[in-house]
Amino acid sequence: MSLGEFDLIERYFNRVHHAADQGPRRAVVPNGDDCAVIAPAAGMQLAVSTDTMVEGRHFLSTVDPARLGHKALAVNLSDLAACGAKPLAFTLALTLPRVDERFLAGFASGLLALADEHDCELVGGDTTAGPLAIGITVMGEVPPGQALLRSGAQPGDELWVSGWPGEARLALEAFRGTLKPPLSGEAFEAARLRMEQPSPRVALGLALRGLASSAIDVSDGLLGDLGHVLKRSRVGAAIALGALPVSPWLASRPVAEQQDNVLAGGDDYELLFTAPAARHAEVLAAGQAAGVPVHRIGLVQAEAGLRLLDGGWGAEGPVGWPTANRWTSFDHFRSA
Amino acid sequence: MSLGEFDLIERYFNRVHHAADQGPRRAVVPNGDDCAVIAPAAGMQLAVSTDTMVEGRHFLSTVDPARLGHKALAVNLSDLAACGAKPLAFTLALTLPRVDERFLAGFASGLLALADEHDCELVGGDTTAGPLAIGITVMGEVPPGQALLRSGAQPGDELWVSGWPGEARLALEAFRGTLKPPLSGEAFEAARLRMEQPSPRVALGLALRGLASSAIDVSDGLLGDLGHVLKRSRVGAAIALGALPVSPWLASRPVAEQQDNVLAGGDDYELLFTAPAARHAEVLAAGQAAGVPVHRIGLVQAEAGLRLLDGGWGAEGPVGWPTANRWTSFDHFRSA
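^ inputs. structure came back:
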C-alpha cells in the first residue's frame, strides 16, 4: 500500500481526529510515536492476551464489517474477563488485501464502539498488505494475586457457566446447511448475532474476583475448556446434563443437537467458573449485578476425570445415569 | 491444524518445559492461562508497540528461520529502544501455512535467544493456519515522564544517528541484482547479516533517557523518519552530508549509492535522536557505554523544512552548498 493509503487507514482508527469530545484517555503518549505509553493504576498487575482472526478460518468473507470489528475485540476482552481483569488498552495489527473504505469504516465503527463500551483504548497499530487477518493484543489490570486462574478449582466447588452456550454453533451449522429440520428465520438471526457479535463477560469477571476459585472463557467448547480447568487444578467433576442451560432457540432442536451445541459448540465466549458451594448466593448475586444469568451445572470432585449424569441437581449434586462422553472427539469435525 | 499440531508448536515456545535452569521470570501467571499476568516495577509506565512481518513483503521465503525469529522481535525491541523503555514482555501471534518442525525449531531459537539477551519474556501466543506472518506486541517499562518522544527536538539541538545506516538496503539491492558493480561476497554477507539480523539499540535508548530531547528508530529511511520528528517537534533541520556515517562496506560504493542507502535505505533499526549541543560529550559517552557508535549529522533549526549541505561540520554546524533533496520520493520505488 502507498503512504497515502496508510494515511487513509489511520484516519479511521486515530481517535484524536474525530473524538474531540472524549474525556481523558488512558494513553500518556498516544498512538503515533514509536510506542504508546500507558499508565496502569498504582500497584496493579497487567493481564495480557493475544488473539488473531483469519478470514476463512475464523470468519466468513461475507460477515458485516462492523460485527467483525466487534468480534475481533470481543474475543480478546473475553480473555480479560476470564481473568477478572479490567480492560485498559489494546493494539491492532491489521493485514488487508486492499484498502476498502466501506470495510474500514464499518470495521472501525464496530471495533471502537465495543472499545468505548469497555473503556479500552486503542494505543497502537500496524497495517500490512496481505490476506485479511486481524491480530489484537489486549491489556487489562488486576490487583496483585486476584487474577482468576484455571488452576484454582477445589473439590466441593460448584461449577457454573454464564449465559446460553451453544447458539454460536447453531448459527455455524445453519450456515453450513447441516441442520434438520432447518432453523426458522428468526432463530437463525438470533443465533447469528451471537456468533458474529458475542458479548464479552467483562462485568461478570470483575464481579467474580475474590469469589470464583477458577475461571476460563468458553471458546473451544464447554467440555474441552472444562478439561483445561480440571487438568490445571488436578481435580475431576460431575456435570448434571439436566441442569445445562438451553436457550429458547436451542430448546426447539433435537435433544442430541442441544447437547452437542451446549457441551461442545465453541465460539461462545461465556465464562465457565467454579466457586465454593457456601458462596452459591453470592455467585447468583454477582451474575445479577453483571446483568448475565449464571447457571450451576456441576460439582468439582477430588476423583480425576469427568462424569456426565443425565439427571438434574440432587441433595448432594448432580444425579442420574452415567452418560458416555461422546464429545471428546467432537471437536475434530470442526476443522474438517 | 489439529490439536496435536498445536501441542507441537507450543513445545517450541513454552520455556517452562525446557528452561528449568532459568532464574525467576517476569510473568506472575505464565503463558497458558487465558491471560498472562505481569508485574511492572512499582511506579513504572508501560511502553507498548506492535509490528507484523509478512512473508514476501517483509522477508524472503528463503531467509534462515533463526534470523527471521531474531528480526521479528528485534524490530519491536527497536521501538522500545526509541522510547528509552526497558524490555519487559512480548506476545507472539504466528500464522503458519503448515507445521514445519525445522522452521519452528530455528525460528524459536532465534527469537528466544534475542528475548533472553534483553530479558524480555514471551508471555502469550496464538497460532493460526494461514499465509506465513509474525505479529509481535512488545511491552517495556519507563519511568513516568522519561519516555523519549518524537516531539521534543529544540532549535540548537544536535541531530545524531547511531551505527551505520544503509547496509540493510545494500543487501536488499544485492538480492534484487540492481548493484553495478556487484558486491563482493564478503560485503554481501556482512550487509545481509545487517538486513536479516539487526541489533536493536536498547542499551543506547536507556542511556539516552534524560539526555536526548527526541528519538525515533530508523525503519523507513533516515530522512523519512527525520521528517516525523521535525513535524511533531515543529522545527526544521540542516544535515551535513559530509558528516554522514558510511560503513566500510558502503564506502567502496559509488557516492550517489552511498547517499541513497544512508539517507533513505530503510530497515536500519538505528536510533535517530536529538540532544542539546551543550551535552555533546555526554551523548558520546552514552554511545560508548552502550557499545554503539553515535554520529552527529546535523543541527535542529527553528526554520521549518530540511536543508541538506554538501560539506562537513563548521564552527556553527553543517556547512557546504545546498543540495536538492532527491530522496523525498525515493521511498516509492521500494514498494514498486
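DSSP finds eleven helices and 15 strands in chain A. The longest helix of chain A spans residues 65-83.
thumbs up if we can close this ticket
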